[in-house]
Each structure stands twice: as structure tokens, then as C-alpha cells.
Design a protein that fits this description.
5 strands; two-stranded antiparallel ribbon; three-stranded antiparallel β-sheet; mainly alpha; binds benzoyl coenzyme A; about 475 residues; binds fe (iii) ion
């Protein structure tokens, strides 16, 4: 049983480790200061219908109720231990999984945990102003659900830092509250987490593409030989599914509404009817998809090879029977694309351990494509003969061999570097979206004009439920 009245709800026997408990209880008020300063703006007193993680049992892990966000029960939950778990890959394969951090692996592990932890508060910071322009109570509630859970993911990483990394861990935990998304002098660690999210179009694209990187990274870390990291990531994945749902269905509803407005307009122009045109949406997709590809790191990465060799970060489903035969990856290679002279593209064979980022991103792209196919099916049903497409991974890159190159979304070289910008959101696009999303819709069951109503209830409540009570 988990004691939900404890100051920090947990299933890690915190009460038995008084020093650790005290240390985390000292960090808690600083976390709350950060939340009040950088969390959802203007909504801290409101009562929000939120789910809270209360156990790790598959059927009953979440409890739904109205909560004022600063009173949300941010807890520490590890998925159940899997008996005598063994390391599933790399040079330590078949050795018992580590319950404590091995000395040689300390630096690399700390870095992985800090990088993962840094993204969580970053996303909350990026999204903090969206409440004031929410398209409905339903969407507002989903945004805030994502926000409190990302903050819980910060707790998940901070627990590991405090429990396993001593003084350096405590210092890193302070830094996690000190860096700020998009700040000049102390930005967040990874690129996409320093890009502004100023509209709901940005937010839905972020939840679709960037949270999905989160899913893939967490799934890789869930294979870690460091068992506490594996178990905490496994449980985080349970929450992550909803974030991806918010992104994918958010864009789907925008598309459904666009199709409707196109049918109504004699010139098939959704803008004439206060909607979002597909060209603009495509540019937002182009931006967030490629920013998210950068989060996978370079397709040829010695870091990735080290993480795998040392048993710290595996492949998705590495431990699942039947997924892979070879867990050593010492033989063979993977062909990686690189720019060649005069706008051409060539491939180079990279040893498998160094190509792990490339392998992970392949699965990610396939999953994104499936969601895009569903969007296009919505367009087709809506009678629109146009499609959203994923741009080529050569386009708009800041990491990997195509960084700094000027390729177009169709994968061909741009004659003129400026031609690339035409496929990304322009200042005019942003201004239009700002104009469209300048006020919230807070009446129950109502939606902004540019998005179709929701179709999936939350916790089986009616869709016109009072998901947020303003105070
Ligand atoms: N921006 O060998 P390379 C989530 C750095 S999202 C800036 O190519 P590596 C969430 C890299 O650090 C999931 N810098 O890449 C989503 C390295 O620096 P050094 C977050 C970047 O190391 C939504 C250098 O470039 N989790 O949870 O194999 C809402 C060369 O790196 C970037 C993780 O990322 C970038 N995009 O892979 C909330 C998991 N990419 O060594 C939450 C932990 C690379 O030159 N992190 N660099 O100083 C990792 O596994 C790896 O660090 C990465 C990079 C996959 C990110
Ligand atoms: Fe997260
Ligand atoms: Fe997420």
C-alpha cells in the first residue's frame, strides 16, 4: 500500500531512509517555488480534474479528482522489480542488473539521468502561457494533466540523483530547477526544449512529435542495466501514452475542422472562415518533426556506443523475448546517409553499436508516419484531396551529418538556402495563429472555431464536463 498522505507519496520505502527522505523534503519547497514561478500561469488556484498516480498496478494506478495544482501529489513510483533481472545487452550482458551505481558507469549514468530530467521541467516552462488561450475546458485540462505529469517525471529523475549520486546528485537536482527553457545564459540542455511553444498548434505538434521522442528514449532507458532507472522509466511510459494521445488527436481535430471549413467555403479557403489552412499546419509539422529528430542525437554516435556497451541504454524492447537475436552488436553495420559533393547523398557503413541512434529514430519515424496516415484518412473522409507529409530527415537539421545543410522537405538540395525557410513557420504564420488563438473558450462543451470537438471522454465523464473550475 502506498501512503498518499506522506509528504512525498512513494513506493520506494522512503520512510525507511530518513536521510534521503529529509533531503528530498528539503528539495520539495524549492520545486514548489519553481512550479509557482514557471508552471501554468494564472491557474494555480483553479480546481482541475486531474489523474494522480497512486500505485503501479496496471488496472488501478490512477486516481481522478479535482485538484489545485500546487497540491498535486507528485510521487515517486518505480515499476515492480522483475525478480532476478539480468542485464540484457552490451559487454555486461547476463550479469545481474545493478541496484547501485557501478563506479565506472557513474559519470555516463548521471549524464543520461540529468539530460532526461532536464527535458521535463523545460516542457512545463515552454507551455506555461497556453492556459490563457485554451480552445476548450477539455483541452485545458489535458494540457495541465501533461504539465503535472512532466513535473512528476522530474521527481522521478531527482529521486535517482538524490538516492544514488550523493553530493553531485544534489547539485544536479538544484541545477534542474535553475536552468530555464530558452534562457540566454542558462538554457535547457537539448535543442527542442529551448524553442518557444506559443500556440496550441505548437503544443499539439510538440506532444505528437517531441513527447514521442520521450517515449522512445524512455523505452531505451527502461532496458538499462541500472535497475532503478529501468523501473522508473517503465512507469513513466504509462503516463506518456496520454501525452501522445493529446498531440495526435489534437492535430486530428484541427484537420477535421479544417476539412469542414473548406467544404463550407466557396473557394475552399479555411482561413476565410477562421480556420487553419493545411499549408500552415504542414510548416508546423515540418518544424517540430525535425526538431524532434535532432533529439535522437547523431546517427553515428560514440556516446550511443558507450551507453550500449556499458549496459546503460539498450534498444527499445531489448529484453522482450523474440524482438532481437543479437544483443552484442559487435558484427555488421548500418548504412547511414550523408551529404556528398554537389548536392548528392551517399551512404556510409557504421558499426552497429555506433548506429544505435539511427536504429531508434527509424522506429520513431515509422510510428509518426502511422499517425500522419490517420490524419490523412480524416482529410479524405472530410472530402479534401490533400495530404500532410513528414519531411525528409535531411531537411532542417541541427544535429547529425545534415546539420547546416540546405535540403528541402522532399529530400533534394535547395538551390538557395532561403528556400528552406519557406517550409518552416513564418512570422506571418505565427501572427495569424496568434490572432486566431487570442482568447480562451471556457464555456462547458464549447470549442474554438479552428478545432473540432473532442470525441474521447476523460475518465468516462461527459464531454461537456466542467474539467476546470476557475478560482
Ligand atoms: N540538442 O553523440 P551525439 C522527453 C549533443 S524527450 C543539443 O550525437 P548522443 C520529453 C550531445 O549531448 C527525451 N545537444 O548524441 C519530451 C553530445 O554532447 P557532447 C529526453 C544535443 O549523446 C517532451 C553531442 O551533441 N531523453 O522525455 O548519442 C516533454 C553529440 O551527441 C542534441 C533523453 O534525451 C540536441 N538535440 O545522444 C517532456 C535521454 N543532440 O557529448 C519530456 C537521455 C545531441 O558533445 N539522453 N546533442 O557534450 C540521451 O540518451 C542522449 O543524450 C541523446 C543524444 C539521445 C539526447
Ligand atoms: Fe516526461
Ligand atoms: Fe510527456
Amino acid at each position: 500500500m502506498i501512503d498518499l498522505q506522506a509528504r512525498i507519496p512513494n513506493n520506494v520505502d522512503l520512510a525507511d531512509d530518513k536521510r534521503l527522505q529529509r533531503a528530498l523534503e528539503q528539495w520539495q519547497p524549492r520545486f514548489l517555488d519553481w512550479w509557482r514561478e514557471m508552471g501554468p500561469e494564472g491557474l494555480q488556484q483553479s480546481e482541475v480534474y486531474l489523474r494522480t498516480a497512486v500505485s503501479v498496478e496496471p488496472g488501478g494506478w490512477a486516481h481522478y479528482d479535482y485538484v489545485r495544482m500546487p497540491e498535486y501529489r507528485w510521487g515517486i513510483f518505480l515499476a515492480p522489480a522483475e525478480g532476478e533481472r539480468r542485464i540484457g545487452f552490451g559487454d555486461h550482458a547476463a550479469e545481474p542488473a545493478w541496484q547501485e551505481v557501478p563506479g565506472e558507469q557513474r559519470g555516463a549514468l548521471r549524464r543520461l539521468i540529468v539530460t532526461q530530467g532536464d527535458t521535463e521541467p523545460a516542457s512545463v516552462e515552454q507551455q506555461r502561457r497556453l492556459g490563457a488561450i485554451a480552445p476548450s475546458l477539455y483541452d485545458l485540462r489535458n494540457l495541465l494533466q501533461v504539465n503535472v505529469e512532466e513535473a512528476r517525471h522530474l521527481w522521478a529523475m531527482v529521486y535517482l540523483l538524490f538516492r544514488h549520486f550523493g553530493r553531485d546528485g544534489r547539485e544536479e537536482a538544484e541545477e534542474l530547477l535553475a536552468r530555464r527553457s530558452n534562457a540566454q545564459d542558462h538554457p535547457r540542455i537539448l535543442g527542442a526544449f529551448n524553442r518557444p511553444i506559443e500556440s496550441w498548434l505548437d503544443f499539439f505538434c510538440f506532444a505528437m512529435f517531441t513527447d514521442r521522442d520521450g517515449k522512445y528514449q524512455l523505452a531505451s532507458l527502461a532496458e538499462s542495466g541500472f535497475d532503478p532507472l529501468a523501473r522508473t522509466c517503465r512507469f513513466m511510459l504509462t503516463e506518456e501514452a496520454h501525452h501522445l494521445f493529446v498531440g495526435e488527436t489534437g492535430i486530428r481535430r484541427v484537420i477535421a475542422r479544417t476539412a469542414e471549413l473548406m467544404r463550407e467555403d466557396p473557394n475552399e479557403d479555411p482561413r476565410a472562415r477562421g480556420g487553419i489552412d493545411l499549408g500552415l499546419l504542414q510548416r508546423y509539422v515540418n518544424f517540430w518533426f525535425t526538431e524532434s529528430l535532432d533529439l535522437f542525437g547523431s546517427p553515428d554516435s560514440t556516446n550511443a556506443a558507450t551507453y550500449f556497451s556499458e549496459g546503460l541504454k539498450g534498444r527499445m524492447n531489448e529484453g522482450k523475448a523474440g524482438t532481437y537475436d543479437d544483443h552484442a552488436l559487435l558484427e555488421g553495420g548500418v548504412a547511414i546517409e550523408e551529404p556528398a559533393s554537389r548536392g548528392g547523398v551517399t551512404t556510409r557503413e557504421v558499426p552497429k553499436r555506433r548506429a544505435l541512434n539511427a536504429m531508434l529514430v527509424d522506429g520513431y519515424i515509422r510510428e509518426c508516419q502511422k499517425a500522419v496516415d490517420k490524419w490523412n484518412a480524416t482529410l479524405e473522409r472530410g472530402g479534401v484531396r490533400a495530404e500532410i507529409t513528414l519531411p525528409s530527415p535531411r531537411f532542417h537539421r541541427q544535429v547529425g551529418p545534415f546539420a547546416g545543410q540546405h535540403f528541402l522537405p522532399d529530400g533534394t538540395l535547395a538551390d538557395d538556402p532561403a528556400a528552406v525557410a519557406a517550409h518552416l513557420p513564418s512570422e506571418a504564420d505565427r501572427a495569424y495563429v496568434r490572432e486566431l488563438q487570442d482568447a480562451p473558450v471556457f464555456q462547458r462543451g464549447r470549442y474554438a472555431n479552428w478545432i473540432a470537438p473532442a470525441t474521447s471522454p476523460i475518465d468516462r465523464k461527459p464531454l461537456d464536463f466542467e474539467y476546470v473550475r476557475f478560482r
